[in-house]
Design a protein that fits this description.
240 residues, 9 helices, 4-stranded mixed β-sheet, alpha+beta
Amino acid sequence: MPDREWVSITDPDDKHDTYLFDVSFLLSSYTCIYGRGCPGIGDQPDPVRACCIHGAHYVDEEDRERVEAMVDELGPDYMQFYATAKRSGVTARAGEGEYRTRKKDGACIFQNRDGFATGPGCALHHYAVDRGEHHMTYKPEVCWLVPLRREITEDVADDGETKWITTITSYDRGAWGPGGSDFGWWCTESPEAYVGTEPVYRSMAAELREMTSDAVYDELAAYLDDRRAHARKPLPLFVG
């Protein structure tokens, strides 16, 4: 993969927080194409189960409690596996001190399949859309973050002052940790997904605001708007 272009923005409301943004990805036309050609991920990809085959790992207890509370909100009208969720719960252990959504028939228990009344896809996502709300209001945090990847590092200056650097880019195979290079990750690594009508920084504006702040996002958007207005293209994601 070729080098990418980056821009650094310090939070105007907190000089200790700096954000490093992947300009190449944020100006790209990537979009989720679930149900529109996405082959799914993993060793046995499935376009219906798609990226939900592993369940969703909770980032913290608040994330878990919010998602668990959604079962009764969804009910059987939105959740195909509602009866299983009520009987067995929607959370399973994913390791020492870690939890994820329970899997049902090889995918997240919230993932409705073909033949269900709402159509295939995430029950939480369908619920949000029908209410005119953004899906990140209800989904596990990892589900609305992806394909954006956030990494926070600590930087201690010579004078002892601590600053935090948050890098925001896209997920690729190597970003998934040990074994990631062999992980069947299709999402951001194929040109077929780069067919959006808006650049990522606009189509995922709500997510970027949540990951940073309104002030940081507004500065980022102004910078990228200017790039586009002057037709200045960043380093490409794909070559050839």
